[in-house]
Predict the structure.
Amino acid sequence: MKVIGVDPGTQVTGYGVVSRSKGKLFCHGWGVIRTTPKAPLPLRLKQIADGLKDALEQYAPDELALEETFVAKDPQSALKIGHARGAIMLVAAQAGLFVAEYSPLKIKQSVVGYGRAEKEQVRTMVRQILSLKENPTPLDASDGLAIAITHLSHLPPTQGRR
């Protein structure tokens, strides 16, 4: 089972690809999709969709895991991230991928063991869990890996949907 975890954003969308075989997790890669900051939102959503299509083609994951929208103090930001999530879900559906969603709290609990962990703590644990020689950068990419790890940790060891 190979999963692409996606941390949505309208400026930077991070992703990471992880698989599980015989109870062990393996990292296949990570990256970010950067959009043109001053471009209109529809163009940035297209950039996200095109970038994700490229990642799906490169890594051929079986499923996609996505961070849920976190509504804090800025509803406008949450709305924009919701648009990015919609573009990501559409690309996943067009590729025939199952989409799982996890809250930021659940992701941090799964990877760090503490739901209020800082991004740096998440990156440190991702590096340790995946036995990486270097820190995944930027933080958006390590978040993508954390989302994939979370999804794989919530599936029974032999379960896949294909």
